Amino acid sequence: MKRLLGLLLAALMVLSMMGVAMAEEKVTLQFYIWSDEEPYIKDVVEQYNAEHDDIEVVLNVIANDDYDDKMKVLMAGGADVDVFDIRGMAQVVTYVETGTMLKLDDYIAASDLVMENYGDMLELSEVDGSYYSLPARSTCWVLYYNADIFDELGLEYPGQMTWTEYADLAKKIADETGEYGGYWVPWIFPFASVQGGKWVDDEDTSLMQYSLELLNRVYNVDQSHMSYAEITATNADYIAEFETGAAAMLPNGEWCVQMFMEDEAEGECDINWQIAPMPVAEGVEPGSTWGQFQFMGINAATEHPDEAFDFLQYLCGDEGAAVYSRHGMIHAYSSESALGAYLETVGKDSVSVFFDADKVCEQPNHLGYAEVLAAFNEQAQLYLLGEKSIEDTMADFIAQREQILAKY
After folding, report:
1. Between the N and C ends of the chain, which has fewer C-beta atoms within 10 Å?
2. Domain ranges of the chain
3. CATH class of the region 26-139+292-334
4. Which DSSP state fits 299?
5. Half-sphere exposure (Cβ direction) of 115: Cα atoms closer than 13 Å
6. How far is CA 48 from the centre of its chain?
7. Does CATH number 3.40.190.10 belong to domain 141-289+364-405?
8. How far is residue 4 from each of residues 62, 123, 215, 346, measured CA to CA in Å?
9. 143 and 278 in contact (C-beta within 8 Å)?
10. pLDDT tens digit sequence for 306-361
């Protein structure tokens, strides 16, 4: 009897110790992002880990240019990915089509997230009526300008302009200084069309052609901007071109604010940068610009969906918004406290342009849109390199588009 009692006590002790050990085990989540996002997301991860004893988020950073291709390989190969960064809605749709994203509807319904805080663009964030991702960052394109250069030339600071007026101003600055009047990054081509509410799968292609002809003017005709050919051949750094005064204006996204602030802190930027509204095509509503959500999603194959969503709502809710604001980034989850923190951090009145802009979603949630956009970009590049006429460019794009959309 004593022996039996001893065995029972020993068994209870073993079970108790196993329970303690299991309670002390942490769930580890593998989280993948691209490198530009590391400064602020690293802080969110560190803050979350400090507040949670039972979950540890491991941050994996992939170089910007390699991220999309590497993530496709990792996801297709069954790699250990729990939460991951997604650039835009077209990619969300692609991931959903391949069955690699976890549906979040039930998790969202049970959460404390106030979905209205994500704003109007949330309407285009569903796929077949369901949410598979949460917005983390809200992009917004504006016109940055170097106020020092305008002062030296005795020019008025830019306000709301048309794209034609922008091109005229860039040429004037280039002619007077011998430097570039502006810098246009080589990855956004149908800009005026998006501002006018016409995505590249729309039948009306007039503003798409307008966009390309405007770029051809500043790149190749006026040569007021570094040409597309030179940018791609030299892998030029648009931030460096602007910060060194080699370009007086820079149409670009809100992420530049964080990059300027970081360089200022390191003594690498001392220009008086300011912000103006994005120019528009003639007939397009003043104040119109484009932007999109950058999303976070959960791998459908994760072994820890509950823990992954716990981190996801932290990153994409109030806590993440506060950290983003302290880094000069605009979070998708809008609140008065986050807005106040952002304005205080940046310390420039002209950043109000971000919040006054009438933003059109850069990419819709249409099936096949990513493929259509890739076809447009391919044709745009050939045109801007001088290898095709604008007529052939548009005709070939329309033909490609018809073939792509016929599959859906």
Report:
1. N
2. 26-139+292-334, 141-289+364-405
3. alpha beta
4. B
5. 16
6. 22
7. yes
8. 58, 66, 87, 72
9. yes
10. 999 999 999 999 999 999 998 989 999 987 877 788 889 999 999 999 989 999 99
